[in-house]
Write a structure and sequence with these properties.
Two copies of one chain form a homodimer.
Chain A (H helix, E strand, L loop, with lengths): L6 E7 L3 H12 L3 E7 L3 H10 L4 E3 L2 H5 L4 E4 L6 H8 L8 E4 L5 H7 L8 E3 L1 E3 L20 E4 L7 H13 L3 E4 L2 H27 L3 H9 L5 H7 L4 H10 L1 H23 L3 H20 L18
Parallel strand pairs in A: 1-2, 1-4, 2-3, 4-5, 5-6, 8-9
Antiparallel strand pairs in A: 7-8
């Protein structure tokens, strides 16, 4: 790699799927001289050492961030306040702090109070991931061709924003700037509500009698399978997302409930024309997803991916 | 292929994704001496000729089925009655009739009255497909390693059931027998409700203001993308599924509504423990899907398939 280093010492505070993928990408791209990691559990710290994705691993956030010019928060969003308080004593006076959480207003509320006046906070959200969790689930390519949304509050230092943007671009991501409130609303419909629906239908199936549950699994290729994958995502991460983006999620859920009531009524009363016209409308959105190049590498004609009927 | 022919003349009545895939599989496996096809639209008939997947193409169902020892109904389930009436005059007295529809009680109700006493009806449902429709979307491998459920009514001729089962096994499918009513209930939760939820959330997104809609498409990798794929499935086929499996779909939707109300309440009142315990439970179901080998070839660790956040 002939590109210059972006940072001297990067501290990754929380090394799950996203944090560990970022560590790998930084290592591969030689973007920092040194990577320090914090992980809460001894098991994760052992895995990080074994994987060799950080130069040192710490069980105290303040130790991990000491002397770092970039700190990346990668913990579940509900843990941000506790972690910010714990790392504050170790922060360098001119540090740049960013995060990778799925909710942006809450992290600004929870982390900002612990940062000194010369420090810079650039909240971020790479829209990437899999249903797998933990340091071993990460990989350096995760952010390739994915969006990363930065939501710096008004007045954030432009140079700090650019440093964080440069990091993500070097990871292969497309960087966009957005207002935090707007981010939380858009993600409520594109990500949080889909996960809530997937968790719910899989829960509905789990509540069936034992014999039916076995058949649901056996015949899951009919559409249900895709929902089980989404509903296998990390429970703590998603608990925190819903609790910390409550208003936007409840608002979108309310709209959804109105729309499904309309469909329910149409099914009950045999209103085929209404059903068909709604199902036609949804095809248009799919076309948009495909045209935007967001359909995924294997989407074009991948028979194992979605089986209907 | 050294395996013997299973049929002399097969008539495929309705050559969409499933019908045309079956035609290809029969051709490739030399399972019949002759394949005749019916398609309603001139466009589809032209495509079938061009694709060369049938020996003759007919615009009248009675012509297509003439002299056939096997007739496969592949039309949307709402069209079965009309098509059965139209093809009846051409049916051979000892013909075996099957279908590929996603609802089984309705097809028995709609087709049986048009079959003579020496004829055999073996309703079937290959649980396979993609979100694409039409003769050009089919491919011979579609049924490979997929389940095909047969729901012969009590008293159906065993030899006829075995002939249809043999056809599907030669296509690579795993054949199971089931009561039609039970089939409709299991598929309501594994397939019909997932499609209804996907159609609904994509409709909810489509109803957003224009500017937000563009962003929903742009950031669809957060989970929404998977729903758009499901919601791109054939509108007429799915209209008919919901109208013809009304009771089972409404029953499962009612259960789903109760479960999502519980989650909605937990989010509103900040009940994190309840959320987390439900999200843990759903991971178990996913493990079952993976152990059953129903997770799909690219599911094990395919970063483009499901991106969370």
């Amino acid at each position: 790699m002939s590109e210059p280093q972006l940072f001297d010492r990067v501290a990754i505070v929380g090394c799950g799927l996203i944090g560990s993928s970022l560590a790998r990408a930084i290592q591969r791209g030689a973007m920092a001289r040194e990577i320090r990691a914090y992980a809460r559990s001894a098991e994760s710290r052992g895995q990080i050492i074994e994987l060799g994705i950080a130069d040192s691993v710490h069980e105290n956030p303040a130790d991990a961030v000491e002397g770092a010019d970039l700190v990346v928060l990668g913990v579940p969003v509900g843990a941000n306040e506790t972690i910010a308080r714990a790392m504050a004593p170790g922060l360098a006076p001119d540090v740049t702090v960013t995060d990778v959480g799925s909710v942006k207003q809450a992290v600004i509320r929870d982390v900002s109070p612990y940062l000194g006046s010369g420090m810079h906070f650039v909240p971020g959200h790479p829209i990437a991931g899999t249903e797998h969790s933990g340091p071993e689930a990460g990989f350096a390519d995760l952010f390739e061709n994915r969006y990363c949304i930065l939501t710096p509050p008004p007045g954030t230092d432009d140079a700090a924003v650019e440093r964080v943007a440069a990091l993500w671009r070097r990871c292969g991501a497309r960087v966009e700037l957005m207002d935090a409130r707007h981010h939380d609303k858009v993600l409520a419909i594109t990500s949080h509500l889909p996960h809530l629906l997937a968790y719910t239908i899989v829960d509905t199936a789990a509540n069936l009698e034992e014999s039916e549950r076995a058949e649901v699994i056996r015949y899951s290729a009919g559409g249900f399978r895709d929902f089980t994958r989404i509903a296998a995502s990390d429970p703590v991460m998603w608990r925190d997302v819903f609790l910390n983006n409550r208003d936007a999620v409840l608002e979108m859920l309310q709209r959804f409930n109105e729309d499904i009531s309309q469909l329910q009524r149409a099914i009950r009363w045999g209103e085929g024309d209404l059903l068909q016209s709604i199902f036609h409308k949804t095809c248009e959105i799919r076309r948009g997803v495909i045209e935007m190049g967001q359909a995924g590498t294997f989407d074009a004609r991948e028979p194992t991916k979605q089986d209907d009927g």
